[in-house]
Amino acid sequence: QARVNEVMDKGKDIAGTYEASLGTVGKQLSSMKRPMEDLQVSLGQRWTDSFAQGLAVANDGLKLLARNSDAVGRTMEYALLGVGAVAAAKAAGAMQSYGATLLQTGRQSALVARESLALAQAE
């Protein structure tokens, strides 16, 4: 019983020490670690399914692009040709006279891109 009484007396001396130490900025900052970890776990649990679905869609998209790299390459060529045509026309100061042609080329490029992707998805 004597030891229990002694422990209880010593406990009175240190009671509230932790709470008192939270009065310093450093202690407050270091005590935020656990609530931050709890928040991360909670958010992770909440968004894991959505994140996994997003990753699956992105992965499927990359696989589709890889399987159809020829069509993707052609689409990129047409897009770059269109950009090059616009840049050349702008540099020559002939943007107005080439506007209709560039617009038509852009439309054709868009149609080819759509057709290429539709064919790739059909496979």
Give an account of the 3D structure:
The protein has 123 residues and is mainly alpha-helical. 91% of the residues lie in helices and 0% in strands. The protein is built from 6 helices and no strands.
Question: What attributes does this structure have?
Answer:
single chain, 123 residues, mainly alpha, 6 helices, 91% helix, 0% strand
Using only C-alpha atoms, the radius of gyration works out to: 33 Å
What is the helix tally? 6
Main beta sheet: strand number and arrangement?
none
**Number of E-state strands:** 0
Going by helix content, strand content and strand pairing, the class is mainly alpha
What share of residues are in beta strands? under 5%
Calculate the mean pLDDT score and round it: 77
Fraction of residues in helices?
Answer: over 70%
End-to-end distance: 84 Å
- Apparent shape: elongated
Helix and strand run: HHHHHH
Low-confidence stretches: none
Q: What's this model, at a glance?
A:
With 123 residues, the protein is mainly alpha-helical.
Write the topology of this structure.
Blueprint: H1 2-14, H2 17-21, H3 25-31, H4 33-67, H5 69-92, H6 95-122
